[in-house]
Each structure stands twice: as structure tokens, then as C-alpha cells.
Amino acid sequence: MIGYTLMTEQAGPRELVEHAVRAEEAGFDFEVMSDHYFPWLTEQGHSPNAWATLGAVARATERVGLMTYVTCPTMRYHPTVVAQQAATVQLLSDNRFTLGLGAGENLNEHVVGRGWPPVNVRHEMLGEALEIIARLFDGGHVDFVGTHFRVDSAKLWDLPEHRVPVGVAVSGQQSIELFAPAADLMIAVEPDPSLCRQWRRAAPDADRLVGQLPVCYDRDEQAAITRAHEQFRWFGGGWKVNAELPGPAAFAGASQYVRPEDVAASIPCGPDVKPIVDGVERFLDAGFTDVAIVQVGGDHQEEFLAFAQEELLPALSPSDR
After folding, report:
1. Of 19, 36, 110, 229, catalytic
2. Strands 150-154 and 142-145
């Protein structure tokens, strides 16, 4: 399936709802939404609340699947709150929602003033959060005492008819071994075949492995490269680095020597459909079942969605592959 990314870092909430409706009309199969407190770079310029926006998107759309890509259920949100939010969006969307979770980024989680723990602690916290969320989805009252979380007689009073599927973002063997047994699907951002192989070994019944591909469509190739460099040069740092940086100024400093040609080498830029199709194919060839496409530039979504409807999605249809 081919998805569309609602980037909270590059558009306001009303615009995101409009983009969601238009993407459904264009023919995308599902839509994922980032959940940030800060944009990566000041030039992106936005960061509305993802969950409030998802509620509006759920009622404004009719067919597309919806997913958080991804929410951190350990610091900025307590896992009991995430479970309640997910159940509510599942009800609002008539069972079209998937809860995508991850261990988080310093960029967003530091705002609650609890510091930023090392990765092994973040993984411990996510493991406990997954257990709490699963038990709440089971129904009834939940009590939990762990190393990082305590839950006292919590219950979800509005549970959807269909249990919310849970996906977990992973980047290597450690995270896969820890989280695949507790998740319904895998989320990743690199077309790495080893991730898919390891996930399927750890979770043989897994039927969805979801990747993400940034692109910068524009009829003017140079304008696309310039915009991609301005707003997405942070992407090349990789998640192991990006998860540690505390704010947009840090991302700007870390990417100050990234050149426009470096970005153009890693992100399809310009008017041609083939580089985007090739990028999607790399994920599919690696073993992913789904790919969510990011169009760089909040003010350039309508032209991309028209291009997707007329050229990109037909080129990605199964009969053409």
C-alpha cells in the first residue's frame, strides 16, 4: 500500500486536515501523521498537536487508514493517556486507526523537564508502555508497578469494536528483538532488508512492514533541491544521531555542512516520477509492504497531490510493477 505523510512540522492543523482530505481523494491507501512538539528545523515552521488534528482528520476522511508515525508513549505522554487517545481516534475513524509508537527523540520529549535518558533506558520505558497499553486495550481495570511507570486502577471506558493495531519503530536488531513480539507491525525509515528479515523471524505472523520515503516534487528541479536542502537537510544524520539532538538549533548546527547536492542524492527532487517510483521500489524489494511518502514543503502539497493522482499513483499501481 502507498501512503501519504501528514507532516505536523511543516503545516498548521487546518491545512493538515485539508491535505488529508485531498490525499484521500487522490487515491492514497493510508495516511500517517508525525507527532512532534518542535519542528526539526526553524525553516519548517510548525508543530501543532497531532492528536487533536487526528481527531479532525478522522471525521473529515472516510476511507484511508490512519496512523501515528510515531508517538512516544513514555515522557511527554503517559502510556495510559496514549491508550485513551488511540481508542478515541479508532472510534472517531470507524476502526481505521493504527497506533505507531517509538522510543522518542530528545527534540520533543525534553520539554517536560525530565532529562533525556540513554537508549537502553528508553527501550525499557517503551517496553513497559507497550504492556500498559496492551492491558488497557484488553479492557477492565489495570494496575501496574514497573521500574519506570505506575498505573493505579486505570480503565478505558470507550473501547472500539476492533482493537487498535500497534506498530513499533525500529532501527536495528536490539529494538526488533525487544518489541516485535509485542507489536502487530514494523515501522522503519530506511529500506534495509535486514530489518525486514529480523522482524519476520521475531514475529512470523507480521503482515505489515511500513517504511517512509521523503521526496520533493516541483516542476522546477532546482527549486525542489533548494527547498529540500532548506527543510530536510537534517534527515541525513540518521535516527541514532537525530534522537539525541535537543532542538532546531542543534539540528541546524549538525547539518550546517550538508550541501544541496548531498540532499538531492538522497531525496528524489524535481518533476520526474521515475526517481520516486525507484525509491518506493527499494523499500518493496527490501521486504516492506507499505510505504508512506513525504512531500517536502508545507506550501507545496496541493501540486504534489495533483501529481500523485495523475502520475505517481498510477505508476505505482500493481499492474505497472
Report:
1. 36
2. antiparallel
With beta carbons less than 8 A apart as the criterion, state whether 216 and 194 touch.
no
- Look at the block and give the residue holding cell 499501481: 317
| C-beta atoms surrounding 61 within 10 Å | 19
**CA separation for the pair 50, 16 (Å, rounded):** 10
Clarify whether 105 is annotated catalytic.
yes
Q: Which residues pair with 167 in a beta bridge?
A: 100, 185
Tally of domains within the chain: 1
DSSP string, 75-121: TTS-HHHHHHHHHHHHHHTTS-EEEEE----HHHHGGGSS----HHH
Query: Distances from the Cα of 25 to the Cαs of 55, 191, 301, 304, 305, in angstroms?
Result: 19, 28, 13, 13, 9
Question: Choosing from 15, 105, 109, 128, which is the catalytic residue?
Answer: 105
pLDDT of 235 reads 83
Q: What is the pLDDT of residue 321?
A: 46
Q: What CATH number corresponds to the domain at position 238?
A: 3.20.20.30
Residue 185 forms beta bridges with which residues?
A: 167
| Residue 236 and residue 258 in contact, taking contact as beta carbons nearer than 8 Å | yes
Please state the pTM of the whole predicted model.
Answer: 0.96
Q: End-to-end distance of the chain based on CA atoms, in angstroms? A: 13
36 annotated active-site: yes
> Which amino acid, one-letter code, is at 225?
I
Enter the C-alpha cell of residue 249. Answer: 538549533
Question: Which among 175, 148, 8 has a CA at the least distance from the CA of 79?
Answer: 148
- Return the percentage of the chain with pLDDT > 90, whole number: 94
Residue-wise pLDDT tens digits, 144-166: 999 999 999 999 999 999 999 99
Kindly report the number of other CB atoms within 10 A of residue 24's CB atom: 20
Pairing of strands 185-187, 290-295: unpaired
Q: Extract the residue ranges of the chain whose pLDDT is less than 70.
A: 319-321
How far apart are the C-alpha atoms of 222 and 227, rounded to whole Å?
Answer: 9
Range of the domain at 173: 2-320
